[in-house]
Amino acid sequence: MVATSPAVWTKKDLIGIRELSRAEIELILDTAPQFLAVSKRVSGIKKVPLLQGRLVVNWFHEPSTRTRTSFELAAKRLSADTLSIAASSSSSVKGETLHDTLANIEAMSTDIIVLRHGCAGAPHILAADHASHIINAGDGRHEHPTQALLDAFTMREALRVQRQDPTLSLEGMKVALIGDIEHSRVARSNIHALTRLGASVTLCGPVTLLPAGAERLGVSITTQMREALADVDVIYSLRIQLERQSRGLFPSIREYVKMFRIDSNSLRFAPDDAIVMHPGPINRDLELSTEVADGPRSVILQQVTNGVAVRMAIMHLLANSSGASRVRKP
Ligand code: NCD
């Protein structure tokens, strides 16, 4: 399939990958390298003035280290002013609605709101009624679009270097997502991004952690690691989200580790050059062994590095594209 990038970005917000076309995803991936170069400057200032005078607000209603700091750094490297609001210290604990809180923040002339919220759909509801550009930094079990974009970018970069092909795309690449798919917004956004980019995706985990009806998303499903890892280019391990489980969904941790952990034992099923990824935070030695997480196949820290550049690209496209209207929907 031949990709054609649109000349300009036209969306006001980034709510989910599901709403993006292949060309829009590729536009973001192709915009990121210039920002990676800014972050990697060894001498000189790691900053560009593209968001100078704009206000970016990080509004996080759930715990986060990586995503929050990544967005904050991305905004600062674009020279924006930044504010952080944590849910525990915001007026939501006094009963104020999300709409009212946002209307008050917006009265101080905000440009971009980065929202993480435990309720699926919260960013979508706010985006429809407010003029700021809304970026979804994870909503419940629904989507985590910037994570999937930084993941696709990292896969493409790592495989381009490994295969010595600077134009390699993810078309035809095989990616296995392993572990707690059911509770994972990262898995959902990755499924949308990777299938749209032409990769083939296999989901693998205990049957209780595989979402019902996932076949409809155009992926293969198995409970056998041997089957999932055969011929893969990318192994993507997911965190067991114990905080989102209301009841035990597998008999014991020991059993889970034996059947689904990515370690030197399970890697015997995979090709030698398959790369290993994880969105973090890692439950070390539960879903991923320390030797693999810190080993030569792992690109986990590259995901973190690339995350800043991809988020810079997204904020730049949203705030500076002539087509990205800030007019609210009626
Ligand atoms: C993910 C999240 O919060 O959804 N982490 C992240 O953003 N880096 C994945 C997870 O919590 O397991």
Short summary:
The strands form 2 sheets. A 5-stranded parallel β-sheet has the order 7-6-5-8-9.
What's the name of the CATH homologous superfamily of the largest domain?
Aspartate/ornithine carbamoyltransferase
- Distinct ligand kinds: N-carbamoyl-L-aspartate
Q: Count helical runs.
A: 10
Distance between the termini: 37 Å
What do you see in this structure?
With 330 residues, this protein is an alpha/beta fold. It folds into two domains: 22-142 and 305-320, Aspartate/ornithine carbamoyltransferase (Rossmann fold, 3-Layer(aba) Sandwich); 145-303, Rossmann fold, CATH 3.40.50. Helix content is 35%, strand content 14%. It is built from ten helices and nine strands. The chain has helices at residues 22-39, 66-77, 98-106, 122-129, 145-162, 185-196, 225-229, 253-260, 290-293, 300-320; strands spanning 55-60, 81-86, 112-117, 133-139, 174-178, 200-204, 220-222, 234-237, 275-277. The strands form two sheets. It has a five-stranded parallel β-sheet with strand order 7-6-5-8-9. α1 (22-39) crosses α5 (145-162), α2 (66-77) packs across α10 and α5 (145-162) crosses α6 (185-196). The longest helix has 21 residues, at 300-320. It binds N-carbamoyl-L-aspartate. The site of N-carbamoyl-L-aspartate has 11 residues, from α2 and α6.
Keywords:
330 residues, alpha/beta, Rossmann fold, 2 domains, 5-stranded parallel sheet, 10 helices, 35% helix, 14% strand, binds N-carbamoyl-L-aspartate
Sequence-ordered SSE layout with sheet pairings:
Blueprint: H1 22-39, E1 55-60, H2 66-77, E2 81-86, H3 98-106, E3 112-117, H4 122-129, E4 133-139, H5 145-162, E5 174-178, H6 185-196, E6 200-204, E7 220-222, H7 225-229, E8 234-237, H8 253-260, E9 275-277, H9 290-293, H10 300-320
Parallel strand pairs: 1-2, 1-3, 3-4, 5-6, 5-8, 6-7, 8-9
This protein binds N-carbamoyl-L-aspartate.
